[in-house]
Structure formats: C-alpha cells, structure tokens
C-alpha cells in the first residue's frame, strides 16, 4: 500500500481492520501526511473500506457539519 514505509502500512492495516469490525459506523481518517496517505492507491483502499480520508482539518469539519 504505502511504498517502503512499514509504519504507515501498519497504520493502514489497523484502520482497515477497525473498519471491518465496525461496518455500520461512519469512518474517517484525518492525516496531513498526503505524501503517503494521499496517494490514489491508498485513497482507493480507504474508499473501498468505507473510510472518508481528509488531509485538512477544515475539510473534515465541513464534512462533519453535514452529518
């Protein structure tokens, strides 16, 4: 998933595991680390698991207000 970064891959695996355990809940991942988590491949994996990814707090807060 995240090229050459064991820690970021571990983070993604835990996030995906949690998403699998809670399929009916809204899920959000907020991280400014767009170099690793903002790649199209990682974003697709997150979307497939029903996880909304935000790289900016302001965008997350805007989304949260609509919920």
UniProtKB/TrEMBL annotation:
It comes from the Bacteria. This is Uncharacterized protein.
